[in-house]
Amino acid sequence: MLLDENVSRPLHKAIIAFVLEHEIVHLLDLDRWSGTRDEHLYPRAAADGFHVILTNDARQMQRPREVEAIADSGLHRIEYPHRHPGLVGIGLAIATVAAGLPAALAVLAKADGQRLVTLRGIDPTPASRLRVVDPAAAPPKYWPDLA
Asked: pTM for the full model?
């Protein structure tokens, strides 16, 4: 699997830690691949034996030349959403990819042709990500009476 250059290094490290049965290569680790335009990247990746590209470039599928290059390459394309900056953003990206990539790779291993996969994002809103309890106001079961 080839990671597009827009995939962060921390996410790359996380992926290689939990996806052990696939070779994971970051585009930035390949000589003279950095800066390759997407319409040239897909045919080049296919020619070099890659089967899957992971990207977070959601706009790629809105650009006709890039869509044509993806289709012509025959490569599977996996996209994950990444719209949040900083530590929260990288945490959400890692969580999204960690939760969805193994299942996506299993589906692709059985696919009889090219597939386009979008991993669904983890909801970053505090209400959906956190449960905060004030034990003084709503003590959990077995909480001691400290009064």
From this structure: 0.84
